[in-house]
What we know:
Number of strands: 5
Order of helices and strands: HHEHEEHEE
Oligomer: single chain
Mean pLDDT: 85
Distance between the termini: 12 Å
Low-confidence stretches: none
Shape: elongated
Strand order of the largest sheet: 2-4-5
Radius of gyration: 19 Å
Helix content: 55-70%
Amino acid sequence: MTDTAHxxxxxxxxxxxxxxxALATQDEADxxxxxxxxxxxxxRTARLVNQLIALSRTEHLAExxxxxxxxxxxxxxxxxxxxxxxxxxxKGLHIALEVPDTPVWVSAHxxxxxxxxxxLVDNAIFYTNSLVIVRVLFDEARAHVYVLDxxxxxxxxxxxxxxxxx
Length: 166
C-alpha cells in the first residue's frame, strides 16, 4: 500500500506545482508550458490509476487456481488493438495489427490474458515515438504475440524489475 500511495502522491504533487505556477505567472509562454506539463502529468496519472485498477482486478487471481480455457489469441489481440487505437491516434502514432485470418487457439485465463495484451500495447503506446505493431504468429507447436515499437526499450539493469509492481 505504501508503494501505491507513493506512486500516486508524486504525480499529484507535480500537477499541483504546475497549476500553481500557471496561476501565478504573467508570462503567457510560461503559462502555456505549465499547462502542457499539467496535461502530460494528468495523462501519466490516469495511466497509473488504470494500472492500479488492473492490478487490483487481477492480483487476487494470481493467488487462486486459475481456470484456463481455449481462447483465440488473434481475436484478443484484435480487440485490445482496437481498444488502444484511439489513444494511439490521439498521440499521433500509427498502430498496426498483423494477425492471421484463422483463429490462434491458446489455453489461458480470459481476464489475465486480456490484461497482459492490454498492458503490452499500452506500454508501447506510452513509450514509442511513432509506430506500434501488434503481431500474432503461430506454428504447429506455439503461438506467438509481439508488440513492437520504436521506443527506447528497457535498460538492461532494469529488466528484472518488469516483473514487480511499479
